[in-house]
Each structure stands twice: as C-alpha cells, then as structure tokens.
Design goal:
Shape: elongated
Strand order of the largest sheet: 1-7-5-6
Largest sheet: 4 strands, mixed
InterPro entries: BACK, BTB/POZ_dom, Btbd7, BTBD7_BACK, BTBD7_BTB_POZ_first, BTBD7_BTB_POZ_second, SKP1/BTB/POZ_sf
Subcellular location: Nucleus
Main location: nucleus
Organism: Eurypyga helias
Strand content: 5-15%
Number of helices: 28
Keywords: Developmental protein, Lipoprotein, Myristate, Nucleus, Phosphoprotein, Repeat
Number of strands: 7
C-alpha cells in the first residue's frame, strides 16, 4: 500500500538498503555479556541388526508405547499408595474431624487460586493501538500538514497512505516534506471535531469520541464512499512493515573491524541496513523518541530534510545485535514477537554471529534467544517486546530447561515474572523433579522456596527422603572439591569410585540440611511408622520426633492436622492432590453411611405403634388415689406423679 511519489525521497521499496549520504548517529557506549543456558540431551538407541525399516519402526513404537504404559502405571500406583496412606490415617477419625480437614483443604485451595492470579499479574504493556493514539495526540515526527476549516492537523504521510485510499491518492500529489494540503470534503455535516475523530480512527481503529452522527448509517456510508473503507489496523500496519512506503529512517549497525578481519567477514555485509518510520519507532520506544528529539534540537534533522535523505541511526551491535533488529521492528508494527524471523533470514556473517561462534553459542535454543532479546527490550524501553519474550520463556519451561530458566530469572537482569512461573512449575511438578537428575542441580534457595510452599505437590515422606539425598549429593561434591588435584579425574577420585553412605560426615550433612529440614512438616509424614523418618532420627538429622507422637496431658495423642484440636501443634497440611481427593472420598463415604444410619433409625421408629389414641382423657384411678393421699397427708408438698403421664 502507499503511493508512488518520485519526488518524495523514499516511497514503496524493499526494507534493506539505504542512502550513503544519510546523516549518522552513533548509539551505545556499553555492552553486556550474552549468557545462554542449555541442557545437553543424551540419545539412547538399540541395535536390532539387519532389520527392515518397517519392522524396526514397529518395534520402536511398541517399546515407546510399553514405556508409556509402565510410566503411567507407576504414577497411578504411586498416587494409589498416597491415597491408601491417607485412608488409613482417617480410618479412626470422626466424620466431624474429616469434614474439618476437607474444609481446611478447600480454604487452602481458594488461597491457591488467588496466589496463582497474583503470580500471573504484571504491569500492562502499551499496545500498538494505545501508542498510535498517543502518536496522534502528541504529533511525534510529523511530515505533512492537513488544513481543514482554517485548522492545521499535523499528520504522518506513511500512516494515512497505508490506512486510507483517499489519502494515498491525495498525498502522492504533494510529496515534499512539510507540505500543507487543504482538505475539501464533499460529505455534508463534517465539522472540525468530526474530522479530528476521523483522523483518530485512521490512527487507532476507533473514533475516540462519542458523537451521535457516527451512529448515522447514511453519514458512514457517504464517508466510506469518499474515503474508502480501511482494513483493520493490524492488517494495514503489517502491510506498512512489509513494503515500508515513505520510510524516513535507516538503522545500521557498527562492527568490530578486528573480528571482521580475523574471521573473514566483509564490512558491507556487517553494515546491512533496515528501513523504518520515525513515527512508529518513536511512538513504541522512548529510547528512539528521545534520540530523534535530540537530533531535532541539535539541527541534524534540518540537514536531512534539506538533502531529502533518511536519517541514519547507527547502533552498537554489541548492545543490539543485528539479527534481532527485524524481530524488534516486526513487534513495533504488529505487537507480535516472532522468533522464526531469526532462522528464515539468510546468514550475513554479522558481528553477533561471530561473537556467538567464538562463545560456542551459535545454535541457541528458543528460550535462550528470548532471554537475550528480553535484555534488548529493556534497553529500548519497549515493554510489549519484553512481555512477549517473557511469554516465550514461560512456555518453554520444562524439566530440561528448568534449571537454566531459574538461574537466569533469579539474576538482577532476569525477569521476576518468569521466575515466579518457573517456581510454580517446580512446585507443581516436584514429584517428577525430585526423581530426576535435575533435582540435584537445584540451588539451596530455590529448594527452600519450594518446600516452604503450601501447594507443593509431594508427600512429606518423599520430601524428607529426597532432601536427605540432595544433601548427601552436595556433601559428595564438597569432598570431590577438597581432594588433591592428582586424584581428580582418575579412577581413585570421588567422582569415579563414589563414597559410601556410612563414610559421610553426619555433622557436615546436618550443616548442609539445617536450613531446609525445619520446613519439612514431619507431623504429616505418612505412614505413621515411616522408615524414612526413623532413619533420619537415628542419624541425628531430626532431633525430636513429630509432636503428634508425643502423649498429651489428657492422655492419647494430639492431632496436628486439625485446627480446633491442635493443642498448640497445628501445622497446615499441604494441598497435595492425592491426599485431598482421598479425604473428600472418605468424607463422602462417611456421609453416605451417616445418612443410611439415620434413615434406618427413622424406619425403626416408624414401626413403633402410636399409643396416644389409647389414652383416655379421664384421669386414671391410681392418680386419684395418689393425689388424695398427698392432699390428706401434706398439702404443701408437690405431687410426684403427673396426671395423664404415659409410662
């Protein structure tokens, strides 16, 4: 879309390339190191000899299906064990106590919903529509003036030409910069406020004012006939990005000549240029807006207008790698973060690629690219791009990427929002994490945050068991670090021969686990006679037994699961799904039994005959005798038998 204006310096043309006479502005004085994290995957294969591909495929698919069945069966049996333990605990409870426990679980579940909503909350990023409304209001980098009813409306040629066929034709007749165009509108009833609302609609897709005339179908039909019907804002901005009609700025990238000479890159390739519009980049990024305003104050912009050349902005590639430039521009025009652009464009041997080759990070994962782009978005103050990168990183959280994302997001330059999503994944998938090698790579801080959560998906027995294993692994790493360099890497090293459990220093192990073990809710360890708990107590890792094992002053044992029967030892139970579901199931069964018992009692009572109709209204003779005797003997004493009472 757009007009062919030969006099205007740049109408519709491809995005790559630029004018060598353009003025130059150098950006960037500092650099940061690009850190990428990845997990090396291991591939295992079975050699079946000389087999047909079809048979080999059948066997492979059969093994995969069988493996999935085993894993599914293992998970179901594990959850069945947890349910059995909870049922055994509740077997001796009263229905009121079970109901109190279920209510506690429901309250914790409601808190979890609020907690998840709070975790997902983040500041709202400015959309393309809001930034375009601000662009129309504050008139950044306008290049043409529309005169309507003796009022001047500074606007942007590229936006109006892309949005409206009427303006596309009109602006092509006056291609010079700062041209004043007198508007002559044939549609009746169009005044200055309504014309301003029409321009606002072309910028944002909304009129921006309440006017009854916009509800008049006849006026809307006349306007569409005169101005044409524009597409949606997203479609037209995408077309403007693809064709770059009337572009007025060129982005270039500086390079390190030493690296170019070393690796054989050419200066022309490293200085590939990308075209854009000042209006768009200044409205989306305060960084670019301040830069362009500074050029206007220093008079550099006047030189560009005189020479009719686009402004050239040279960016330091050590801060903003050129490979991300198209992704950034695409997001500025469409609000979409599309990392596939990185792999669809041909390699040009840029400085960023040379640096990646030197650092061994040439093949970066999608999450690592989003992490690097996130830093650039913060530098440009482009919040929509930053939040798009956060979404990509959060979607890529898995067992393989968990450690890398936790490490990155916990750094000062990382995303706190991504960190919360990674911790949520850790808590929800803790049962899967602790049975994998990933568990031993977790830092003490991340592990501490997880076991403090009321929503951790694991039983207390498993938490205690794997915490001790994690501590033993950390202790073995310490021993390996302390051994002489002569033994390191040999067959006699700790990493090769290992360390027996009895040879581990209990004091040092206790010191490693001391920040973690207090947050294990040992009062809720099931079964009651847990070997894991007994072993931990024998080794001195836990000094005192659970409080529910201790007798109370009234005799019997206290209950740490119930709030009203706590005796000062209540501990909120975790919202562990197998326990919650089994507690609800036990409560339903108890309620059914209670209902059946009440119904049975009602049936038995209904079989007793109603004898009230057999009672005569007359007072029995025995009652007369008793009353007569009482009156004659002692009139002041009350009667001991009430008249008409049914024995």
């Amino acid at each position: 879309m757009g007009a062919n204006a030969s006099n205007y310096p740049h109408s519709c043309s491809p995005r790559v390339g630029g004018n060598s006479q353009a003025q130059q502005t150098f950006i960037g004085t500092s650099s940061y190191s690009h850190q990428g994290y990845g997990c090396e995957s291991k591939l295992y294969s079975l050699d079946h000899g000389h087999e047909k591909p079809q048979d080999k495929k059948k066997k492979t698919s059969g093994l995969a299906t069988l493996k999935k069945k085993f894993i599914k069966r293992r998970k179901s049996s594990r959850s069945a064990d947890h349910a059995k333990q909870m049922r055994e605990l509740l077997s001796g409870w009263d229905v009121r106590d079970v109901n109190a426990l279920v209510e506690e679980y429901e309250g914790t579940s409601a808190l979890k919903e609020l907690y998840l909503q709070a975790n997902l909350a983040r500041p709202e990023a400015r959309t393309l529509q809001k930034d375009m409304a601000e662009l129309y209001q504050y008139k950044y980098c306008t290049d043409v003036d529309l005169i309507f009813q003796e009022t001047c409306f500074p606007v942007h040629r590229a936006i109006l030409a892309a949005r409206c066929p009427f303006f596309k034709t009109l602006l092509s007749s006056s291609p010079e910069y700062g041209a004043e165009i007198i508007m002559d509108i044939n549609t009746a009833g169009i005044d200055m406020p309504m014309f301003s609302a029409l321009l606002h609609y072309l910028y944002t897709g909304e009129f921006g004012m309440e006017d009854s005339r916009f509800q008049n179908v006849d006026i809307l039909v006349q306007l569409s006939e005169e101005f044409g019907t524009p597409n949606s804002l997203d479609v037209d901005m995408r077309a403007l990005f693809d064709y770059m009609c009337y572009y007025d700025v060129v982005l270039s990238f500086s390079s390190n000549s030493d690296l170019v000479e070393t690796f054989g890159g050419s200066q022309n390739c490293l200085d590939e240029e990308l075209r854009a519009h000042k209006a768009i980049i200044s409205s989306r990024s305060p960084f670019f807006r301040h830069l362009l305003q500074r050029r206007i104050r220093t008079g550099e912009e006047i030189t560009d207008r005189t020479l009719r050349t686009p402004t050239r902005i040279i960016l330091d590639e050590s801060i903003i790698p050129k490979k991300y430039a198209k992704v950034i521009l695409n997001c500025m025009y469409t609000d979409v973060v599309d990392l596939s652009v990185l792999h669809s464009s041909p390699s040009v041997g840029s400085l960023s690629e040379v640096q990646a080759l030197v650092a061994g990070k040439l093949n970066m994962t999608r999450a690592e690219e989003a992490m690097e782009l996130y830093h650039i978005a913060l530098f440009l103050e482009f919040n929509m791009l930053a939040q798009g990168c956060e979404d990509i990183i959060a979607e890529s959280i898995s067992l393989d990427t968990l450690i890398a994302i936790l490490k990155w997001s916990s750094q000062p330059y990382g995303s706190k929002w991504v960190h919360r999503q990674a911790l949520h994944f850790l808590c929800e998938e803790f049962t899967q994490v602790m049975t994998s090698d990933v568990f031993y790579e977790l830092s003490k801080d991340h592990l501490l945050t997880a076991i403090q959560s009321d929503y951790l998906q694991a039983s207390e027995q498993d938490i205690l068991k794997y915490l001790i294993k994690w501590g033993e692994h950390q202790l073995m790493k310490r021993i390996a670090d302390r051994e002489p360099n002569l033994l390191s890497g040999t067959a006699h090293s700790v990493n090769k021969r290992g360390v027996k459990r009895r040879d581990l220093d209990i004091e040092e192990l206790r010191e490693i686990l001391s920040p973690l073990l207090p947050f294990v809710r040992i009062e809720h360890i099931l079964p009651m006679s847990s070997e894991v708990l007994s072993d931990a107590m024998k080794r001195g890792l836990i000094s005192t037994p659970p409080s529910d094992m201790l007798p109370t002053s009234e005799g019997g044992k206290s209950n740490a699961w119930l709030r009203q029967k706590n005796a000062g030892i209540y501990v909120r139970p975790r919202l562990f799904s197998p326990y919650v579901e089994e507690a609800k199931s036990v409560l339903d069964e108890m309620m059914v039994e209670q209902t059946d018992l009440v119904r049975l009692r009602m049936v038995r009572m209904s079989n007793v005959p109603d004898t009230l109709y057999m009672v005569n209204n007359a007072v029995p003779q025995c009652c007369h005798l008793i009353t007569h005797q009482q009156v004659s003997t002692n009139q002041s004493s009350p009667p001991s038998v009430i008249a008409n009472e049914i024995p």
